[in-house]
Every structure is written in structure tokens, then in C-alpha cells.
Amino acid sequence: MHHLMRRPTGGRWIRLAILFLLLLPTRHDTGDRLHAPHIERGRQVAQRYEAHGRRLVEYYASLAAAARQSAPDLLAYLQPRSPLLTGYQVLPPILRAAPERRSAPASAAYSWPWTDRLIDGALREIERAEADLAGAKADPRRSRAILQRLALDYSRLSAQRANIDAHIQYNRLWQAAIVADRAGYDQATILYDQILEYQKITDGLHRVSAASERSAIAYAASLRLTETSINLVSRAQSLSRRIDAALSGVNTPSFVKVQDYGGTWVIRVPLFTDIEDREFVHAVKQIIESFWQAAGRSATYRVQLDVSFISPDLLYPDGDKPGTGQKLDLNRHLRQFPTGGAVLTTGGLTTHVLDHAIILGPQSLAPRVLAHEFGHILGFRDRYVRGYRNLGWNGFLVTEVVAHPEDIMAATPYGTVFPAHFENIIHRPAANLPLIPASRVVPLTTRPRSKT
User: How far apart are CA 415 and CA 176, in angstroms?
Assistant: First the structure.
């Protein structure tokens, strides 16, 4: 094999140069940008996803035809769900607060090969369903029972496809983001690895501690590991400091004000909204204020929203007010609001934060999700970390880990607001949040100034 390492000479240089040119990736049809592996692999997966869609449509047609012939009442289970209405003034249902639950810190990963495997599994399920449908046609005595099971299961197959679509969109978004900011994601990946190491160390120390409490033998063994344990504790503390330094920063906007009532700190946030359903806005206010409160050793903390209702007619004085359900240019829409406060409005495809605005989508909204989004209004970043692994021609493995599983900004389904959240706002070195009397924050009563 050593001959492969020889330096090429003479005509071999020409042959290698031609081979190199032939192996260069092709270019996009719409420009000069080279096809990157994450794009090419994504196209392959997208083609298989489209093939899966055609297969599902064919299966649906066969199932519906069989049900129409021998069990028409089952067609009700096969009706497609009505699409969610999106657009202006479309409000999400607010779910009841789920019971608080805890789970172990977890990491997740997404990639084109994994999405490919999801498609493989979905295709196998369609194949099984097609075989069962053929069995129903061949056995009239069992036909209805089989058709009923298949009809009831069809919604799961549809949901499976929606999940695959979500994976495809996720990969397209974040793999492109990695390419656009490789250096930034290299740093994020270092932090990701540090979080995993920290969690591994602390989990191991907790297991040793728990075992030593249950068994004298384990306790004796733990004594022999004292030096190692001390080193691990020191390493965990070092990692914890690095993680906190990277994630605990807060960029609180200047419109947020602080009041000190002698042991009770109140964070006051002016909130402008054009939502016409005032009961809905009141429910949002109650949810945010109920989550964003905490008690420390020497002080208590809470958030107060000062809500100002702005009529859509005032937002759009030129008569171009959008109608209910109308699609919005969200950036233009947000420019209609006054500056100097947060915004709560509608028109999103999903609920998210843009600049200092919570934009509501139509999907059901859990109270903790709303509390999490409000944390972004206060200036907190997500306390989970997204890194990557280079998979070569397969693109990237996008990795995620929750850094602080008990924090509302990390683990939305069960996270909590702590005194440290408030202390980071009140006592941060760059804070410019003057103490003000309550009378200074006044709900808007005049028409918002126009934007030029």
C-alpha cells in the first residue's frame, strides 16, 4: 500500500487534476453556490418523504374505497382534520396547567440519517396496513373488524407523517444555521460537551452517595474513592461556573422597571396589546404573573404587567386594518405599536418571540410555554444548548441538551422561576433599571405615535 503515498509526477499530475475536477460537487441550478452535503442529503430524504406521501395517499384511497363499499360509517374516521386557522386575531386555546413533573436531564439529536430511518419505519407500517387491508377484502367475516381497526389507526399514520415533516424542517433550519455560523456552533459544541460531562459527573456522585447510605460495604468503598470524589466535585464546580457564565447573562430591555417595597421587589413591564378579547388578555396576564414570582432568603420577587389595550383602528389609522384571519407582515405589524414596552399580538404560525413581542400562533398553549416566552421578553436566553457533529456526506448531527432541567428557560414543560432570575435582572452589573414610584407607569390612553 505504500505506493499510494508516493508523490505523483509527470502525467499523473494531469490525470489527478482531471479526476479532481470530475469529483467537484455540482452547482445549484439557481446560482453559483456549491451543493453542500447537508443540502444534498436533505434532498435525498425529501424525495423519499414525497414517495412516502404518495404511498400514504394510495393507501388512503384503497382504505376509503373498501370502507365505502362494506362499512360506510367508518368513513367518518377517515375525514382529514380541518387545518388550523391562522392570522390576525386568531387566538390559541390555553390549556390547563399540567401537573408539575420532573425528568432526568436528557440530550437529543437530529440528522438526515435518523429522518431516513423514520421514513423507513413509516413505510413498513403502511406495508403492514396494506397487507391487513388485503386480508379484509379476502375474508368478509372479519372484514368490518379489520377495517375499523385500520380506520382508527389512520390518524396515527397521518401524525407520523407530520412528525417526519417536522424533522425535515428542523434539519433544514439548523443544519443551514451551522453552516452559516460554523465558528459559533463550534463554541456551542464545546459547551454542549461540558454540560454532558457535568451531568455525567453529578449523576455518578449522586449514585455513590445514595449507595453509601444503603450499604456499609458501599460506604467503605466510597471512602476509598474519597480523593477521586473530591477531584470530581472540583471538576463539576469548574464546569458549572463555565456553563453559568455562558448561559446566565440577561439583556433586559430599558422599558423594564424595578420597584423596591422594602423586601419585595416588583419587576414592572408595560405590555401593549391589540387583542380584542380582553378576557383572553386577562388570562395571559394572570398566567405570567403567577409563574413569575419567587421567594428568596431575604426578599420576595414578582412581575407586574401594566397592560395597555390599543384598538386595531388606532394601530391602522389609514383604514388598512387587517381582518380576522388575515396573514400579516409581522415586522410591519410590530412597527405599528408604540415603543417603550413589550407587545402581545397575534398572527404567528406558531407562538414565538420576535424582538420584544410575544406573537401568538393558533396551536394550544400551555401556561408554562407562555411563561417561558415571557422570560425572553425579560432578556433571558434559552438555557439549552445546540451543538453538532460533522457526519461528512450525511450533513450534520444536530445535538441539543438541557443545561438546567429545573429552569423555566431550559425545560419548558416543568421548569421553574427562581429568585436568581430576578436577582440577575436587579443586580446585573450593566443594569440601568431605575427605581420608580408606582404612579410613573401609566396605561396608554392616547393614540400611538406614527412611525416614519
Answer: 29
